[in-house]
Amino acid sequence: MHVVICGGGFAGVKAALELANKPNIKVTLISKSSNFEYHGALYRTATGSSPLEVTIPLREIFMTAHNVSIILDEITLLDPKKKYIYSSTSNAYHYDALIMALGNQVNYFGLDGMDDHSESMITVAEVISLRHRIVQLIKSKIEHPHIVVVGAGATGVELSGDLQTFADEISEKYGVKRKNIRVSVIEGSDRVLPLLKPKLSEKALIRMSKLGITVRLNTRVNSCEPGKLCLADGEIDADLIVWTAGSRLVDFYSENAKHFEIYRGKIAVDEYMRAKGHKDIYIIGDNAATQYSGMAQTALHDAKYISRILIGMSKGVPPVKYRDRKPIYVVPIGPRWAVLQTPKQTIYGYKAWLVRRRADLWIFKNFQPYKDAVKQWRKGNKKANF
Ligand SMILES: Cc1cc2nc3c(=O)[nH]c(=O)nc-3n(C[C@H](O)[C@H](O)[C@H](O)COP(=O)(O)OP(=O)(O)OC[C@H]3O[C@@H](n4cnc5c(N)ncnc54)[C@H](O)[C@@H]3O)c2cc1C
User: Fold this and answer.
1) Atom of ligand 1 nearest to the CA of 76
2) By alpha-carbon position, which residue is closest to atom 27 of ligand 1?
3) Residue 258 CB: number of other CB atoms within 10 A?
4) What is the residue-averaged pLDDT of the chain?
5) How many domains does the chain have?
6) Which of 6, 132, 196, 229 has its CA 20 to 30 A from that of 171?
7) Distance (Å, whole) CA 272 – CA 305
8) Does residue 255 sit in the same domain as residue 234?
């Protein structure tokens, strides 16, 4: 069976690893990036940690996988009747089973000026550009620079929590006067971390105000211009705007819209994670309209499920139905402090932060042998040459 996997992120790479060296299965993994990127630690790259922590070359991950071919390419077109997927370089890939795991891209909801005048944080390249902007700002002559983060989901909260510490590190490194940066977080809903229980949102808010972060809840952003953000109830000055408030399906799906059914902004799937109306196209990770999609843990869970049923099918075993798994949420906010929500408990503080560090290691263990995973994890303690 030839399994073609599109997307070299959490779901695609994990599915390929699970299928590695399995008899009667040949895997082609197509991705437009040559590295696996660990998004959960991108906020650390933005605030001075080495980007090596968040990137693992795909070739390294699949060094011992004899049945997996890695192809650096961007897929653009699907022909489900002929069972072909085509790429921007006019390559054609024939499949018996197709796994789509293309992840998300930034969504500005059409807000005027946001694309041009804000920084986003979905890829390593984007966060390196953001880090550069922060360094320039701290080195500049502006006395009290104002960084405005749009969105108080996990990404916005994690980033804002580390900004003052990073500003101090930049001042020290470049011998410039220490600056009290102003950090504001703008959130449209009535609490920070809206996916978590209200009690944890309250604790997070208290922690953020202790770190000197100004949080504006129930505040809609309308547009932005150089140096300012226009809100539904007025304007605020902003030396740097970071957009963390939205992501959406990658354009591939709108460009191939006739083949897919959209449900709540994602691809509708049946009980076996097949795109609705297809027998051999599976959708996993952030692309799938499942209850907990949008989380790395869900992407890993999906990948394990899909590879299990494909291995079964190659042996003539009928597939079992997909079952959701509730994810664990753990959000660090500033040095050595986090909030944690599991299906059974909620905690906050240093202990929760320790859980987060262990969770980072667990992520790497999904893709690397234990020793390499520990090495990768330790790279997070190294500083980048910013
Ligand atoms: C800043 C940030 C922080 C996050 N923090 C956490 C966290 O703490 N915990 C958590 O559980 N989740 C977190 N997430 C969510 C998590 O990263 C995603 O749920 C996970 O990456 C989804 O996996 P995926 O395989 O669906 O997509 P991705 O991991 O995004 O992989 C998609 C891959 O497809 C490739 N691709 C896209 N289009 C094409 C194309 N046309 N052709 C070929 N290749 C293509 C991309 O280059 C990429 O390699 C975070 C996300 C972000 C952005």
Assistant:
1) 41
2) 103
3) 6
4) 96
5) 2
6) 229
7) 9
8) no
